[in-house]
Each structure stands twice: as C-alpha cells, then as structure tokens.
Amino acid sequence: MMYGGHGGGGFGGGRIRRLSSVEDETPQITWKLLKRVLSYARPYRWKLVGMLFIILATTGLALLTPLLMRDLIDNALPHKDVSRLITVTLGLLFIPFFSAGINILQRWLNSAVGEGVTYDLRVALFAHLQEMSLRFFTNTKSGELMSRLNNDVTGAQNAISNTIVSIITQIIQVVAVFAVMISLEWRLTLISIAIFPFFIFAARRFSNRLRDIVREVMDANARMNAMMGETLNISGILLVKLFGRGTAEVQRFDERAAHVRDMGRKRAVWGVMFFALIGLFSAIGTAIVYGVGGYLVIQDVFTVGTIVAFGSYLRTLYGALQDLANAPVDFASSVVSFERVFEVIDLPLEVEEKPDAITLTTVRGDLIFDDVSFRYDLQDANLLRAVQRFGQIDSVQTVLSGAPNPKPNGEDALSPNGETTPKPNSQAREDALAHITFEVKSGQLVALVGPSGAGKTTLTYLIPRLYDPQIGRILLDGHDLRDVTLVSLMAQIGMVTQETHLFHDTIRTNLLYAKLDATQTELESAAKAANIHNFIAGLPNGYDTIVGERGYRLSGGEKQRIALARVILKDPRILVLDEATSHLDSESESLIQEALKRVMAGRTSIVIAHRLSTILAADLILVMDRGQILERGTHQSLLGQGGLYAHLYETQFKREGEHD
After folding, report:
1. Which residue range is the domain that position 317 belongs to?
2. What is the DSSP string of 360-378?
3. Full-prediction pTM beyond 0.85?
4. Could you tell me if 549 and 445 lie in one domain?
5. pLDDT in tens, 286-323
6. Are 433 and 321 in a shared domain?
C-alpha cells in the first residue's frame, strides 16, 4: 500500500531503493568531513537557495489542498454556495498546475547541482589518477577504480543534490503539517504521534531482513554476470570451445541463473510483505484517528471537513516522519561514497614533479645510471583500501568455482612485478635493482640480456619515471630526471613494451595518439618505416580500420609494427624496446627487425635483446642477474670472460645464429 499526498507517497518507493544501497560501513561523520562535503556545494549555492524557496512553495501548496477540501465539505456543499464551489474547484485545479511547473523548475535546479557535482568530482578523480605511479595501478583492481569514478561519485552527488535536499524537505513538511494539525485538532494530533514509534520499530525490524535479501540478490546477479563476462569474451569462449566445455558451462550458468530466479521470487514476496506491514500500521493509525475523530464529529466538537483534511495531513506526516527516520542511513551511505572519493584524491603522489622543474627542449640523448637501487614497495600504504561492494562483478573472487578466497598458508607472495618470495635458484629477491651504474652516449645502442626476472624491464621503467629509484640518480644530458618536467621527459622517450596495447578504435586514432596533429603524409611515412603501410593500405577501410579490443583483430606481428609506427611518429631521442619476437612467424619477425634498424638509427636505444643480431649490433651489452649488472662489454669480450653471457650464448643465442 502506498499513500498519496505531497511528500507522503515517497516513503514507500524510496525506502526499497535505499535498502539496496546500505553498506555495512558506519562512517564517522565529523565536522571536518561535513565541511569538505558541503564545499562541493558552494559553487551551486544560489541554485540550492532557489531550491529551498521552491520547497517552501510546494509545501505550502500541499497544505492548501486539504483545507480547500474542508471548505468544500463544510461550507460550499451544505450551504449550496455555487460561487464558493467554483472558487474551491478552481483552487483545486490551480494547485496541481502550479505545483507541476514548480516541480519542473526544482528538477532542473536539482539536476544542475547534481550533475555539476558529479562533473567536478569525476574530473578531479581522473586528473589525480593520471598522476599516480605505476605501482598504484599494479596493486589496484581496475574495477575498483571504475567504481570510484562511477558508483561512489554518484553516491557522493546524492548527498548534496538528493539526500540533503530530501532531509530539508521532510523537516519543513513535518513542521508545517504538524503545526496545521495542531491548529485543527490537538487531541487527534497526539493520537497520531503516539502510534508512530510502533510503526517505526516494526518497519525497521522487518526491513533488516529485506535488506539482507536485497544484498543476496545483488551478489547472485554479480556472480552470474561475472561468469558471463569471463566466458563470453573472445578469450573465454575460445578456451571453452578448445576444451569442449560448452555443456558444462551451460549447466554452471543454469545453476546461477536458477539462484537468481529463486532469490528474485523471495525478494518480491518479502517486498510485498514489507509494504503490507507499512500499510497495516498506517491503516491502524488512520483508523484510530478516524474513529476518535468521527466520535468527536458526532459530539459536534468539529466538522466532517476537518476530519477529512486531518486524514490527508496524517498520510503526509507519516510519510515525512518515515523518511526522516531513515535520513541518518541515507546520509551515512552518501558520506561513505564521499570518503571513498576523498581517499583517492588524498593519495600522495609517489612520482612528483618539482615546482621549479626544468622543461627539456633540445635533447642529445646522453643517459647515465648512477648507483641506482630500486625495490618494489609491497606495503599497502598509499593504496586504496579493500571495499565490500554488494552486487558488483569486481567483488566476485572466484568467477567459475565459486570458492571463497584461500587464506594465506605459507604460500609464495607475489610482488608487483610477478616475483615470489625468495627460493633457491630463482630470481626472487628483496631489491629489484641493486647498484646499477652505466653510461650511454647519444646515438648508442645498449642491449640488456639476462635470465627472466633479472630486472631488465624494471630498469627500463625507471627511464620514463614510471617509478623513481630509492637510491642513486638517473641523468639525461646531465639533468637528474627528478629535476625535469614529466611532460617534456616523456616527449623525448619512445617505449615499445612486450605487451602491445592498442585502443578499440581505428588504426589512424591509435597512430595519432603519438602526435595528435600528424598529417596523413606523416602517418604513412611512419607506417612505411615500420613496414606496415602496405598491410594497412590493403585493408578495405585502410587507416580507418577498427583494430578491435586490444587490437585482437590483428596478428602479433601487425600489432607490434603499428606500435613501432606510433613510436616513429613520436620521433623521440631515446628509444626503449622490449624486443620480444620469439612468438612471431619468420616473415613478421624479419619485417620488425628491418623496421627496428631504421627506428634505432641515430637514437639512443635501450633494448631488452632476444636476438643475436641486436646483440652483435650493440655498442654495449649489459648482462643482468638478480637485479645486478654482472658483466658488461661487447659480444667478443664477454665471450672471452666465460661467464653468464657465455652461458646464455651457448644455450640461447648460438642456436639462433646457427638457424639464421
């Protein structure tokens, strides 16, 4: 049962909506936090003032309707006063029209405030995330970031545009309606208030059960959707087909869908029971009021119109009081969202730019590593805390098995770069890099070789300041990297990683990411240098061909050559490459090797080398093991030492050379 009346009907539908968003967390609402929350409303204060006046106007109009009905029943009809009847009728027509116009204006102001706050928070969040170090992203779920940018920002917006406005509205309604009811009949007013505690107690106790069911429904949906997301993407469906698990996956999905169905039924039944309970207590209060009021009418204490008007006010009062009883829960939930947004905004930057940082203009490309040591920080400091999010796919821990998270039992803990805790004969260690010192002259090629996990990729990540070393310094043309602006530094560095990432967009857009104002001639020139132009020109849509998610429509060699073309278009002075071509066919590998020679010509190049041809062409070979440079020199000098490089040559590079 849902009651009408201005502001009174909202406590039914609004209540079930709030139940689905209540969190287990109970935030500490401090004055400092409240001031910070309200600071986001400051730019929209005049719109909020306008909304306050509108709330007063709509509340006043809502109070007039029952009084007009009383006048109709007590005066116009008994006295057969036609002119009074017309006046009352016109009033009853005017109020809804005027209220509708005011509500449209209020909705416009509300949306202007709400969307404005959402915009401010999202831009502030996204801008801050762009400045976070790589460690933050390697330790944070992407789904959690999306939740902060979407769900939490929306929840925070509700605190200003909906929750606070709703609380003010209900307070004004309660005060105004209570005053009018007292003026009409104080005895009936006391009776109405006396039953309200029982009304709230029963409704709250019943709503706790419904809240638990709502959460279970949301989690069941999340598990079902997570399975669909895992098995219906291109990688997942390929795995299902290759292992012939289609029937098994249908059965698994059937079980999860059945659970969602059963919980949906349960939610529907308990929802009806919940509103029936609210309706029952509302009916009890209304019946008592009408019973006592009717007796007083019979005793000629007041008129029939008075009791009719009183009943209308009673429904509005019950609805407003019910909403006010839930206001702390609503506001606490909104504050939780604000706290999560502030948590991201307040995260300190690990790779900061100095206020007086130097802007690099002309760069030669001289690079020096001066006693550099680096370790991955495994602490949770400066990271986002874990949040239990009901009904979100990202909160599902085991997508297929449904098993809970295994508890630590002495198993190896992964570091951010995928290394485990130390074991014999492994590359695992405390320091990723230890006392790295070397110098590269402008235009030279340095090849990094060594076992997997030796620290080669970590070393390359320090050059564009994806991380900062804890000890030592890195110099570019004599400037400490910490002393230059990040934008000007990245403008001088081109990096092609082993995992090539392409946006789900056209080839043209992916290439233009390196130089937004590049002309078609420049695009084609870069593509030709990377040996990919002929392939692109042969496509039906040419450079406007969409590459698919992560470039999935292209082969590995085609993606790498597009990535090379993107770097060529950037035209950096320093080139950092992970020359991983072992998974490519011989033709793609040959095209990439030929393109690499053109790309590296005249540039300072740091290459994680996997091919003998690159190593032979290197001006300096650095042999790394367990985060240290064990050997350095040219190919011939290193072979003569009979150390790790000689071993790698015999076991890896020599076979490749014989094959070539």
Report:
1. 10-185+302-345
2. P-S----EEEEEEEE----
3. no
4. yes
5. 888 888 888 888 888 878 888 888 888 888 887 787 77
6. no
